[in-house]
Amino acid sequence: VLYVGDYKKPVNVDELEQLARKGLVAMAIDFAGQSDKGMYTVYPEGLNYCNAVEAHDFFEITTTAKETKIYEYALNCRRAITFLQGQEKVKGISLIAEGRGTNVGVMVMGVDNRLTNGVVLFGSLSINYPEAVTDNSVDTSDTESLKRHLEYDILRQAWTMGIAPQTYVMQIKIPVYIVNSANSNYVDIEHVNKTNSRLNRECRFLTLPNALDYVTDKYFDSIVRWIKGAQVPLPQTLTATTDANGEYCIKVQTSSSINKTSVWYCSNPNGRAKYWRSAKLSREGSYYIAKLDLYDRENDIIAFCLADREVAVSSQLFYDKVTVSR
Questions:
Q1: H or E element: which one contains 24?
Q2: Count of Cβ atoms closer than 10 Å to residue 314 Cβ
Q3: What DSSP element (H or E) covers 223?
Q4: Cβ-proximal residues to 14 (8 Å cutoff; 6+ apart), any chain
Q5: Angle between helices 102-111 and 69-85 (to 10 degrees)
Q6: Which residues pair with 28 in a beta bridge?
Q7: What pTM does this model have?
Q8: 178-219 pLDDT, tens digit each
Q9: Residue 287 neighbours by CB under 8 Å, 6+ apart
Q10: Buried b (16+ CB within 10 A) or exposed e, 125-154
Q11: What's the rounded Cα separation, in Å, for the pair 78 and 73?
């Protein structure tokens, strides 16, 4: 396993030890560089911008992606993969990208076909280049305004094509396990959900309803099983239905047993923070029915199903508008 964490911080040895205790060969690279203590990567003078203390902003680019720290970090990851390939006991290579490291890890997953599979932990799969702050609109009759806009647009396109994670997500051919918290401090779970159409069909999601950007031992084991190649069924599907009393419910189709299945929902969410509740499940034939407690007359519903299998998986987010008769 090549572990790609926060490139502004030294290697997290604890993470590597945890993976090693599960029988995995674990490796990480020091991206942060120059440090007052311990061992660190020494970059040549021409790559000083790779040192965390001197690194340019994530969105800074000159003319091509090859002149950015993210490109250099990804290049070092590919060198690390070559090194891992030469180790006697290594039978396959996985990449785990966590947090800020997702910006690097996704690029590597998209271009390196030597990887067996991958994991993304608490990272965004789509980031937009910041809007220009100098001009709200372009005045085509003003030469300086037009010049500034063209310069901005050249940089935006160069960054989007060369650095933006969504560019590489579409190139990923390996199975990737995408793990996020339903109320993450760093990632908008709805935004992540929209990237599903860009991922290949072998990818799976795990949305954690009760953890804040933290993986418990239970779900860490799930990640390890994914890395080791455990078979993962197709994710669950959710559809709207009504019960015998005409009350709104969600129909769940899954091969998971009812005691390992849960449906989480929120009503009328406001912003990124959402109040997730667990729905009461009952069996009806070959599927389950999730009963929601809705207290408003008009409800915008977001829901997902979590199946605690050998490799835990979540459905895509389900959206609906519900009017409750009083």
A1: none
A2: 23
A3: helix 217-227
A4: none
A5: 60
A6: 3
A7: 0.91
A8: 999 998 878 888 888 888 888 999 999 999 998 788 899 999
A9: 251, 252, 253, 254
A10: bbbebeeeeeeeeeeeeeeeeeeebeebee
A11: 9
Beta pairing partners, 239: 251
Q: What is the pLDDT of residues 108-150, one digit of tens each?
A: 999 999 999 999 999 999 998 888 755 556 666 677 777 877 8
Neighbours of 35 (CB within 10 A): 15
Tell me the HSE value of 92 on the side-chain side, using a 13 A CA sphere.
Answer: 11
Other Cβ atoms less than 10 A from the Cβ of 306: the count is 23
Class of residue 1 by CB neighbours under 10 A (exposed 0-12, middle 13-18, buried 19+): buried
Which residues, at least 6 apart from 15, have a Cβ–Cβ distance to it below 8 Å? 3, 5, 26, 28, 98
Question: Do strands 204-208 and 176-181 pair parallel, antiparallel, or not at all (unpaired)?
Answer: parallel
Dihedral of CA atoms 235, 236, 238, 244 in degrees, nearest 10, equals 170
